[in-house]
Design brief:
The protein is α/β, with parallel strands linked by helices. It contains 15 helices and 5 strands. It has a domain of about 210 residues: Rossmann fold (3-Layer(aba) Sandwich), CATH 3.40.50. A 5-stranded parallel sheet has the order 2-3-1-4-5, with helices on both faces.
Length: about 350
């Protein structure tokens, strides 16, 4: 049975004026509660390691947790991804990433959240989360990362903000993102996934330029993920620490078991993908987590063949479409990494 729409009551001029005054009063109360950016804090620098996704972030974060004592001795405090995910700061950044406005109550909560994170840590604070300025589930490619960074900078006030971003060849990045969705139990083909991404601008240079416009190019560092193959894990980690401004980075050693640990978040192999697609629809979420753990430990790309999702023609077409932009990327942001250029052009 269809219900009749109830007409909305029209407000009188006096009622509209009263509502406006209530909103203004609420905003004024929130404004008076907003902490003064940076005031009373001993923080001298904020570094944001923002991934990107699928560029060994989990591996680096595992090592950061293992070196928490040594980092603290060097004056470095780390805000880990697990802490950020449940924070009002991350909630506000998610809203910005979706193109939404941050309402005053959330802005206040985010400011207090950031202040709390800084107050409890050392003078040099490193935030490490690949979800910080861009969530993988949002599918867009860092669409509003510049605006999100502006928001963080506004809350930080006089405290300098630096950004560290790891890039990856677009074809490998897209394949790896798709595999991550398979880890999470999603059920769609690679072709369907590509259709959902249609129209995305996969320009690393654009992302870096937008962030540089907010904090200055001297405060943005880019590193190609592919360097891990040439440098090895220990040197890759050392370079990461140096990019984040950690003193005496070379003395922090990488445990031999670190690469094969769960923290390394190894990718599914071709065999793992077949198993996941066959078994996934028949199990629940808790069993899916067990399956993911089993496949990563026994059927990862460390011991089995990597899956090839793009056809050779499809891969070549994508890289050709990105070639000019990638050449500019290496001429500006990745000048110190010429050996990795071959993965991009």
């Amino acid at each position: 049975m269809n219900r009749k729409a109830v007409p909305r009551k029209s407000l009188t001029i006096e009622e509209r004026r009263a509502r406006t005054e209530r909103v203004r009063a609420r905003q004024n109360r929130i404004a008076t509660q907003m902490p003064k950016p940076g005031q009373g804090l001993k923080t001298r620098a904020i570094v944001l390691h923002i991934g990107a996704h699928k560029t060994a972030s989990s591996f680096l974060q595992t090592l950061l947790k293992g070196h928490s004592v040594e980092l603290a001795q060097r004056g470095v405090g780390v805000v880990h991804r697990s802490h950020l995910l449940a924070s009002p700061l991350q909630e506000a950044l998610i809203a910005i990433g979706k193109g939404q406005a941050v309402k005053p109550p959330l802005m206040l909560a985010a400011a207090q959240s950031l202040r709390g994170m800084l107050a409890r840590r050392k003078p040099h604070v490193l935030f490490s989360s690949e979800d910080l300025l861009h969530r993988i589930r949002d599918l867009g490619f860092f669409a509003n990362a510049g605006k999100a960074l502006e928001f963080v900078k506004s809350l930080a006030g006089p405290i300098p903000v630096r950004v560290v971003l790891y890039t990856r060849s677009q074809a490998d990045y897209i394949e790896s993102v798709y595999m991550q969705f398979m880890h999470l139990g999603r059920d769609f083909t690679f072709e369907e996934f590509i259709e959902r991404l249609d129209g995305n601008d996969y320009s690393w240079k654009r992302v870096l330029d937008e962030m540089a416009a907010v904090v200055g190019p001297e405060n943005v560092t880019a590193v190609p993920y592919e360097a891990i193959k040439r440098l090895g894990s220990a040197e890759f980690y050392r370079r990461f620490l140096e990019a984040c401004g950690v003193p005496d980075a070379g003395s922090l050693q990488v445990p031999a078991e670190a690469e094969s640990s769960r923290g390394a978040n190894r990718s599914y192999s071709a065999d793992a993908l077949k198993i996941a697609k066959f078994v996934g629809p028949m199990i629940d979420e808790s069993q899916r987590a067990e399956l993911r753990k089993f496949l990563q430990e026994n059927f990862s790309t460390a011991t089995h063949a990597k899956v090839e999702l793009f056809t050779p023609e499809g891969r070549a077409k994508l890289l050709e479409s990105c070639a000019q932009d990638n050449r500019a990327l290496f001429e500006t942001w990745l000048k110190d990494w010429p050996e990795e250029r071959r993965f991009y052009v």
